Structure formats: C-alpha cells, structure tokens
Amino acid sequence: MALFDDKVKTQLTQLLSKIKNPIVINFFTQEIECPTCQTTHQFVEEIASLNDKITLKTYDFINDTDTAKEFNIDKIPAIVVTDANKNSKGVRFFGIPAGYEINSFIAACVEVSGVVEALPDAIISRIKKITKPIHIQVFITLTCPYCPGAVATAHRLAIENPNITADMVESTTFTPLAVKHNVSSVPKVVINDIYEFVGAQPINVFLDMIEKI
Predict the structure, then answer these.
(1) Widest CA span of the chain, in angstroms?
(2) pLDDT score of 76
(3) Distance of alpha carbon 52 from alpha carbon 182, whole angstroms
(4) DSSP letter at 64?
(5) Could you give the CA distance from residue 154 to residue 117 in angstroms, rounded to a whole number?
(6) CA dist., res. 40 & res. 120, Å (int)
(7) pTM recorded for the entire structure
(8) Are residue 146 and residue 101 in the same domain, yes or no?
(9) In a domain, 1, yes or no
(10) Which residues contact 16 (CB under 8 A, 6 or more apart)?
C-alpha cells in the first residue's frame, strides 16, 4: 500500500519541481529490515519516483561498510542527501522524515540541488568562519510542528560550511540516544555533545552555541 495518495503525490511533485541539479538520496538499511527501515525504504522510493532528477541509492549497513564509513553512518535507517557525484553536504536524516518532517526533507532535497534562499551577509560571514568539526543533532518527533524549522536551519548551516554535519534524529526510533541526551521536549538541538537548547530557535542562536566550541 502506497504511503502517499494521488493528491499528496501531486503536491509533493510540485514542491520537488524546484530541484535545480540532480541529487542522490543515499539510503542505509539492512537485508532483514527493521519495521522502521521498511517504511523508510518505501518512503524514499516513493519520493524518488516523483522527480527524474532524484536518484535513489540503497546500501546495506552491514555489507556496504565502506560507504557507511564514508558517510559516517552508525545507525539505521539513515538517509544522506548528496549531489549527483555523491559529495556529502552534511545533510542527514536518522529515522523516517515523515509527518511534519516531510517539509524539512523536501527542503533538503531542493537546497542540496543548489536552490537556497539568501542569508544576511553577517550570518554568512559567521558561518564561513567556522573551522572546527561541528556535529548538530536535532531530536524530533513526527507530530511536532516546530521541529522541521530546527532541522532545516541545521541543514542550511551544513550546506554553507563543509565542517558542519547536521542530523535529524527521530527520537522514538532511537530511544537510547534520546535518553542519553535527556530529550523530554522537541525539537532539542545538541551540538558536539556539549551545548544544547530546546525549540525552533533562529540561526543566530545556533551560531552563538557553535562559536563557543
């Protein structure tokens, strides 16, 4: 049974039509798929079928270890959105980006393809000055209307600076990780396992935290 009906497919096709250059959805699962992996696999297959500029590459987390290491994948289901040459932009999703999160997933596909909204020069300047490796985890739930904004902000930072990697982490799929970071409300943003805050904060709040590292 399809995840998206014809009406939703039409809406998604329209949103994905903004894609400028070809992209690759790199999906990591395993041979005997977990329930969340199965649904996520179907999700990326249906999304990829809606636009000729999207290529889906599926990898076995156990057998395709070199590719998993290349993208630093340590858990599944995982999605990495890259350009056509599989150059990582640091845009990753752990767990299915369904529900409200489909908004951040579509945004990631469009932005990785080369279509981004202009940021203020002062913000761009701050982003470009980041030289240390930065890992942003945005813990979300699929029913949270504020979470896609936080995920999109983190991903935009990653797209602008190769030193930044930004992950959406679906809290109920990765409960031990959420417990480790004391996730009680979402979105919760954790930066380099050191600094954290809750809520869909503006990009300057992300930068304030990053600049402390």
Answers:
(1) 48
(2) 97
(3) 41
(4) -
(5) 14
(6) 35
(7) 0.96
(8) no
(9) no
(10) 47, 50, 51, 54, 106, 109, 110
Domain end marker among 112, 136, 152: 112
Do the beta carbons of residue 119 and residue 73 sit within 8 Å? no
* Three-class secondary structure of residue 194 per DSSP: coil
Q: Which pair of tokens denotes residue 180?
A: 């480790």
DSSP assignment letter at 187? S
CA 142 to chain centre: 13
Residue 82's CATH number: 3.40.30.10
With vertex at residue 22, the alpha carbon angle to CA 151 and CA 154, rounded to the nearest 5 degrees, is 15
Range of the domain at 100: 6-112
Q: pLDDT, tens digit, for every residue of 5-22? A: 999 999 999 999 999 999
128 and 204 within one domain: yes
Look up residue 87 and give its DSSP letter. -
Cβ neighbors of 112 (< 8 A, separation 6 or more) are 23, 81, 82, 83, 89, 91, 159
CA atoms within 13 A on the CB side of 143: 2
Q: Which residues, including other chains, have CB under 8 Å from residue 181's CB and lie 6 or more apart?
A: 137, 139, 188, 190, 193, 196
Q: How many helices (H) and strands (E) does the chain have?
A: 8, 8
Q: Is the pLDDT of residue 87 over 90?
A: yes
